[in-house]
Amino acid sequence: MAIVGYTRVSTQEQNLHSQIDALKAAGADPIFSDKLTGKNAARPGLIDAKKFLRAGDTLLVYSTDRLGRSMTDVVTIVTELGERGVEFKSLTEPFDTTTPGGELFFHICAAFAQMNGRIISDRTRAGLAAARARGRAGGRPTVMTPERVKIARRMRAEKATWPTIATALGVGVSSVRRALEAPEEVETAQ
């Protein structure tokens, strides 16, 4: 049963020395590290640490903000590890799933993170519904202007491929497909 350390700083200019020293003093060996922002999910050091960890091992961090950018991120990672039988411990916060009290505290925080995510999701849906009710469509404006759609339809009728059309119009293939697969608007005389 190994204590595996993980350290992270956000930029190349920052150093990991204080985190590494604290994790070594707590018995962590090996220690995996990243010099990347926490919002980047593809962190090589964290990926390697996860691969190294086995059931019965403990992942040790200096603080939870080194593991994830938000409590939701931390909960996701720790839950995934827990499903594999890996414990989690933070040196500076009372997160320690190796103890009953620490596990309880973690689950309480996880419940708050889940509730916060649902509240944000509900607010977002309500805001989008209110905007739609006022006739405003959300999302990014389309690059496929009516002129581009007309050209794309003509090219497609002449058997041009999706990539050829996209290149000719200077847009992505998916933009062309979406525009041409949408029903044509029929103009009505008034």
From TrEMBL:
Coiled coil: none annotated. The keyword Protein biosynthesis does not apply. GO terms for biological process: DNA integration. CDD domains: SR_ResInv (cd03768). The keyword Mitochondrion does not apply. GO terms for molecular function: DNA binding; DNA strand exchange activity. SUPFAM superfamilies: Homeodomain-like, Resolvase-like. Residues 2-135 form the Resolvase/invertase-type recombinase catalytic domain. Transmembrane segments: none annotated. Keywords: DNA integration, DNA recombination, DNA-binding. InterPro entries: Homeodomain-like_sf, Resolv_N, Resolvase-like_N_sf, SSR_resolvase. Belongs to the site-specific recombinase resolvase family. PANTHER family: DNA-INVERTASE FROM LAMBDOID PROPHAGE, SERINE RECOMBINASE PINE-RELATED. This is Site-specific DNA recombinase. It comes from Herbiconiux ginsengi.
